[in-house]
Amino acid sequence: MNDTTENWPGDFYRLRETLPAEDQALLAELRGFLAEHVAPIINDYWTRAEFPRQLIPEMAKLGIAGASYHGYGFRGRSPLLDGFIALEIARVDCSIATFMGVHGGLSAGSIYLCGSEEQKQRWLPAMARMEKIGSFGLTEPEVGSGAAGGLMTTCRREGDEWVLNGAKRWIGNATFADINVIWARDVDDGQVKGFVVEKGTPGFATEVMKNKIALRVVQNAMITLTDCRVPHANKLESANSFADTARVLRMTRGFVAWEAVGCGLGAFEHALAYAKKRKQFGRPIGGFQMVQDQLVKMLAGVTTSMTLCHRLSQLEEQGQGSEEAASLAKLYCTVSARETVGLARELLGGNGILLEENVGRFVADAEAIYSYEGTREINALIVGRGLTGIGAFV
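Structure tokens predicted for Acyl-CoA dehydrogenase family protein:
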């Protein structure tokens, strides 16, 4: 049996091998780190709904935050490597992948795409080193999919300061983040603008959200902004409309698509290992036709999704990516992940709901990935608008 099918069973078409050797080596190092430091503890942290913050300095040594950004201490590698990093982390735990996606993608990405050169130099090197952790505040208690036209958090300029008022909800990392990117609607011109609100700023308060059934390790927060004053120097220079917000979301939707592939892959790998060891009627269940059929269905879903994401990342590197392409990938891969983790849980029978068998965690986490960064319906409408030239959002 070759190395791919033995050690990388979900990479059936050997897509990992299209990366340069140094990138493959980084993925192997990341895989080793996850196996040694994350896999043994993650169920405990998932149960307690706590984040293993002690892992951050060790993760920082890998240099994987914002791996496709150029300059400011980032690796300057390809979007394809960034995608495989998301996949690798998610195949062990989707919460840790989400943490990285928020920090290195949404938060650092907002500054990378919309910040001035001075702002990039001020914040990004520390974010690349993961000495400062970022969050991204867009979703609100009453505004999710309608953020483009209905954002209720306001900003008002007063001299050299901006005053922010409102609330944000479901904001990953915000309970302990140092750098919080907050999107608010300007009361004067009605446009959405982006700001960096640093930890400890008066008027900025967070409260951890409890009782989640998915991504329990992620520290999602309710943010309250009460006459929160930030200097004009903290207003992202090129974040002046929701179109700028959308630029960030387009980039990170590809990351979420890759994360969905990793979610399905993790469930598939656990199901495959289980099928080889679990015995019924005197032999491993992996030797029964119906079980093999389920495994192949899972593999087909993972492979199709991985191939789609692979091409999306290539288009991004070539400067030919589009909002529609990212939305199609996010839509398809999250639907496929849901189906894959469901098949994995079914294969394990009653054991599939035991946390110790791991698959149940992927089943729960797939539900969150399915919804955040654009629901299936919203992404379908983005693709539909691209196909027909007609917007059908309202």
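The first strand starts at residue 134 and ends at 137.
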